[in-house]
Amino acid sequence: MPPMKVLFIGGTGIISTACTHLALTRGFHVTVLNRGQRDGLRGPEQLVADINDPRAAAAALGDQRWDAVVDFISFTPAEIEQRIALLRGRTGQFIFISSASVYQKPLAHYLVTESTPLVNPYWSYSRNKIACEERLQRALQEEAFPMTIVRPSFTYGDTIVPLTLNSWPNTYTAVARMRQGKPVIIPGDGLTLWTMTHNSDFAKGLVGLLGHQGAIGQAFHITSDEVLTWNQIYEAVAEAAGVAKLNAVHIASDFIRACLPAMTEGLLGDKANCAVFDNSKIKRFVPEFVATTRFRDGIKRTLAWFDAEPERQVTDHAADASYDRLIAAYERGLEAARKDFGQ
Ligand SMILES: NC(=O)c1ccc[n+]([C@@H]2O[C@H](COP(=O)([O-])OP(=O)(O)OC[C@H]3O[C@@H](n4cnc5c(N)ncnc54)[C@H](OP(=O)(O)O)[C@@H]3O)[C@@H](O)[C@H]2O)c1
To answer: Which of 10, 127, 254, 282 sits in a 20 to 30 Å window from 79, CA-based?
Structure first.
């Protein structure tokens, strides 16, 4: 049997690097298509193009066919439309990387399954992912376009520190605050339940779906089964950063939204809600899938990566200053409330 031929659109990003690595390890013939702006792994065939430039993308693909294509970088229905036009009749499977933020907010039931309704009034990113999924459902029905939908939740690797209310993509910002002894903001009481998935675990589920005929027309989330509170997540990051005591300020999401509305779509539309997933569907389709990286261990690897090269430790100074302003506003309000109540 010749090796399975797969194309990753992306392939050198936070999630996709681990998928490229695992697919190569499993002996697949892997091609990555990206703009060549990041360090990639040795081993895959490299196509250089901007996927959103239809001519350049078509020229890069030539007349090749694939057993499976994974698209890591579609965010709008217009982009999905272009991928369908580009890949129609040329792939045995098209896997769209959506997002678990598409699930109902606020949740009617705490445990998320693939049947949880898709509705997110708070975050335009999620609504666009829902519209992409709907376009692919139509392509499946109208022309048997062989789509599979995969919804990652917060997925991290060596290069990002996954926290809420932190700069994106300069995620070292919160670690810099912790190391300087400055307070970090945890929304609510920090007791909301969350799931952090290491990219090497996500890759096991994703690669197991490649070429899986039963997965055509299906949607899956792929996450860890380790459920933590935000307080536990921040404490694990502080421990990995060598910070003896986490200095945390708990602020209600409504207060954060009132002060920093531009920063809060992803808070109200995702991180302020519980994120607990029933992973039985991916385990049924990919029986070898099991997430094995505990956050406490994975985040130590992340911090080791940042500490290995000081130039990786980039602080987003504008975001940092806005956290200082938010904390100052909150503390003034708290002090005034204490006085009002005679305390
Ligand atoms: N990480 C999470 O927590 C999370 C959660 C839910 C959903 N997701 C989804 O996961 C996907 C992101 O995957 P990722 O983490 O691997 O991506 P990433 O870290 O954002 O990296 C993007 C990848 O795509 C390439 N790329 C970007 N723009 C391109 C363009 N115009 N043309 C060609 N290549 C391009 C990049 O390489 P070059 O820069 O060299 O082109 C890189 O390989 C997104 O769809 C996101 O919505 C992520």
So the answer is: 282
